[in-house]
Amino acid sequence: MRGMLRMTLLTAAVMGVCGTALAEDWQLAKDEDGIKVYLSSVPGSKYKAYRGVVDIKADVATLQALQEDVKGSCKWLHACAEMRLLKSENGSTWTYSKINMPWPVTGRDVVIHVTSEKTADGGLIRHMKAEPTFIPEEKGEVRVPELVGEWRLVPKGAGVTEVTYQVQTEPGGSIPSWLANSFVVDAPLNTLKGLRAVAEKH
């Protein structure tokens, strides 16, 4: 049991650094409106990781500013009911989000620690990792116990940025299979559609 726990913690640490490192068998699940959504099985989890990729006619700085607008980003993040900044320190941020779930499924909330990494090509990687004990749990919400992922912004020239949004999560509690299966497609698709719509207005 202890060995399993150590392996789980090690896996989480590796995934936190590499961005869902164990989700490698990516299969195209949807190609709609210029957005490609890929899914991958994750060893030891019944939930699939998701990855969305799209080209957006905006530069990296514009997209970074939109993502760092914590309250404003809730408007384009899929199923976001509320989002607020908890702490910002040395280039890291901690955010709190409430996630809408269809009745009768209990709503989720999540605390995410975000660290940013600039790349040599002028791009940006924003690493995400859940920190469920950062603040006390709220009544009426199920705290998401595990989440790792990343935003990857790659400049393509001529004011175009390739945006990749990738997440693997354990949502906690019980989630019906129909909801889990739809969420992993809808989350990247709708989030990237929303971000693109806002970014291309700037």
UniProtKB/TrEMBL annotation:
Q: Where are the transmembrane segments?
A: none
> Gene3D superfamilies, from UniProt?
3.30.530.20
Which interval of the chain is the signal sequence? 1-23
Query: Which GO molecular-function terms appear in the entry?
Result: lipid binding
Cited CDD domains: START_1
> Mind listing the UniProt keywords for this protein, alphabetically?
Signal
For the START domain, which residue ranges apply? 24-202
Q: Which GO terms describe its cellular component?
A: cytoplasm
UniProt protein name:
START domain-containing protein
Q: Which organism is it from?
A: Pseudomonas panipatensis
